[in-house]
Design brief:
- With 270 residues, the protein is α+β, with helices and mostly antiparallel strands.
- It has helices spanning 2-20, 30-51, 64-67, 86-92, 97-105, 162-176, 191-200; strands at 52-63, 77-80, 109-115, 118-126, 130-132, 137-139, 145-153, 181-187, 202-212, 217-220, 227-228, 241-242, 245-246.
- The radius of gyration is 26 Å and the shape is globular.
- The chain has an 8-stranded mixed β-sheet with strand order 2-3-4-7-8-1-9-10. Strands 5-6-11 form a 3-stranded antiparallel β-sheet, with no helix packed on it. It has a two-stranded antiparallel sheet with strand order 12-13.
């Protein structure tokens, strides 16, 4: 009888422990199943991105008169890059030098922040119509506007505001040339850039897109200037057609006509 009571007491104690710690009731196999399912989910998402393009992008605008007065750290030195610097800087950031030189040929300009002699941040500026690759839309800055793209900070220098130094110089130079407003956009999954842009930029639009690679893209959301469907670009803002290619080719640099998309435009900026 005593043995039976002891057994029942042990059973009740075991059940109470499992009720308080339900994870102990799970089979040991779950410790392997959950990571495996997570890896499978990542693989499925990676595969889907190879077939389908989808996501959300945020567009921002800022007044250069307001942003030029924002503080920038003294730990970095900024300057506009010269053509002879492109090979070294492109290699430093894992870019093809030919792409950088082609951007210069199209009239775009690059500003960089340096820590000593080491370039740690870059940003490109365009004053011409460019293709927003994800959406199939044209971004058309007016004569007193700029489009900022392909901003990138060395991961070792993120969070130290290296981008602020280049941004302050860019704003001063552009203001001196009659520019008063800037535009940029960032993908919703780029949290670093969202935090950086949201700090002193005004959000204009939030647009979603989906489409098959090599096919048409479906865009959802309301937008206005500076975004236009390619066939609806106002005449004063249409790219000049010279030779075989349009002046509005995507900054990333493939030699195609401007209705073809290219690769990423805005990266981490903090």
């Amino acid at each position: 009888m005593a043995a039976r009571e002891t057994s029942e007491h042990a059973h009740e104690h075991s059940r109470s422990v499992l009720e308080l710690n339900p994870e102990r009731a799970a089979p040991r196999g779950n410790a392997l199943v959950q990571p495996a399912l997570a890896m499978l989910g990542k693989a499925v998402r990676r595969l889907s991105h190879q077939v389908v393009r989808y996501g959300v992008v945020h567009f921002y605008v800022w007044d250069l008169h307001a942003s030029v007065g924002l503080p920038s750290p003294a730990d970095f030195v900024a300057r506009e890059l010269e053509p002879e610097e492109m090979f070294r800087v492109a290699a430093r950031f894992g870019r093809l030098p030919g792409i950088f030189h082609r951007r210069l040929h199209l009239g775009d300009r690059c500003f960089a922040s340096f820590h000593g002699k080491r370039p740690v941040h870059i940003r490109w500026v365009a004053r011409r119509p460019v293709k927003v690759s994800e959406l199939g839309l044209m971004l058309c800055p007016r004569p007193d506007e700029i489009y900022v793209y392909d901003t990138f900070t060395d991961p070792a220098y993120r969070g130290q505001h290296a981008s602020s130094t280049a941004r302050a110089l860019m704003d001063r130079v552009m203001l001196a040339e009659g520019v008063r407003r800037g535009y940029a956009y960032v993908r919703a999954d780029n949290q670093n850039s969202l935090r950086s842009l949201g700090a002193y930029h005004e959000k204009l639009f939030e647009l979603s897109y989906i489409g098959l690679f090599g096919g048409e893209t479906s865009c959802r959301g309301r937008f206005s200037h500076p975004l236009y469907w390619p066939e609806a670009v106002p005449a004063p803002e249409r790219p000049l057609q010279q030779g075989a290619h349009a002046g509005a080719e995507q900054p990333e640099g493939e030699v195609r006509n401007f209705v073809e998309p290219e690769t990423p435009v805005l990266s981490a900026t903090v």
